[in-house]
Amino acid sequence: MTSTPERERPSRDRPESLADLLGGRRGAVDATLPPVAFAVGWLAAGLWGGVTAAVLTGAAVAGWRLRRGDRPRSVLIGLLAVCVAALIALRTGRAGDFFLVQLVSNAASALAWIVSIVVRWPLLGVLVGAALGQRGRWRQDPALLRAYARGSWVWAATYLLRVAVFVPLWLAGQVVALVVARVALTWPLIAAALAGSWLVIRRSLPAGHPGLRHPVASSDRDGAPPPEK
Q1: Where, by residue number, does the polypeptide cross the bilayer (predicted)?
Q2: Does residue 35 contact residue 177 with C-beta atoms inside 8 Å?
Q3: Nearest by Cα to 24 from 134, 200, 186
Q4: What is the pLDDT of residues 101-151, one digit of tens each?
Q5: Is 146 in a helix, a strand, or coil?
């Protein structure tokens, strides 16, 4: 019969969840504001109005994120992405091209997540391992490695879904529809991916596993040497 500490451990891990470790939903909400501002400005004053509204909103979001203590590097990357998207739209003269950076980014992200799974360095494990200060120790746990790989497929699917939705809308120049899709497939989809991948990980781990914070090397489990990195 399972001992009391082992029975209590999942209850301590459950409230933390991937959303607590990765904090993805809060940043995703911020990321939807510049595209919404772009659409409003574009409808009101054309391309220059949309670009101006998006850049000003992006700068305001960046300032707010810096004040609340977010990492300057991630904040500046977000603002730079908005500026690059604005420059592309101005250069081509097509409002829909404001979303080209997002489209390419999602395609590249889908490829990166899939490749990480194939080479047995699933990005979900890399991100959670970094958040927990584990470096690569989680890879020495075969059960945890398998669970992270399965959970990573959830994230790869989200990027593939965005590409499948964005490409036809971008080709058709549907600016308003692109904004709606961007909002619908950003923070709600990230929230769903956080919950879904967390559920996949928990169901993939065997009974009695101590959880994400305590990788169990195969040598600790059955006396066999850990897998090669």
Answers
A1: 36-62, 74-90, 110-132, 153-173, 179-201
A2: no
A3: 186
A4: 999 999 999 999 999 999 999 999 999 988 888 888 899 999 999 999 999
A5: helix
Site of tokens 């959303």: 19
Q: pLDDT at position 89, please?
A: 96
> In this structure, how many other beta carbons lie within 10 angstroms of the beta carbon of residue 222?
6
Tally of CB atoms within 10 A around 168: 11
The pair of structure tokens assigned to 124 is: 């979900």
Name the residue among 157, 165, 160 with its Cα closest to residue 182.
165
Q: Per-residue pLDDT tens for 12-50?
A: 444 455 665 665 555 666 788 999 999 999 999 999 999
pTM above 0.70, yes or no: yes
Spatial CA neighbour of 33 closest among 14, 13, 58, 8: 58
C-alpha 224: how far from chain center = 35
Burial zone of 162 (CB within 10 Å; 0-12 exposed, 13-18 middle, 19+ buried): buried
Measure the CA–CA gap between 149 and 139, rounded to whole angstroms.
Answer: 11
138 neighbors 148 (Cβ within 8 angstroms): yes
How far apart (Å, rounded) are the C-alpha atoms in residues 202 and 147?
8
Question: CA-to-CA distance for 26 and 14, rounded, in angstroms?
Answer: 19
Cα 27 from chain centroid (whole Å): 9
Tell which residue, 133, 179, 189, has the closest CA to residue 21.
133
Q: How far is CA 85 from CA 38, 96, 143, in A?
A: 10, 10, 41
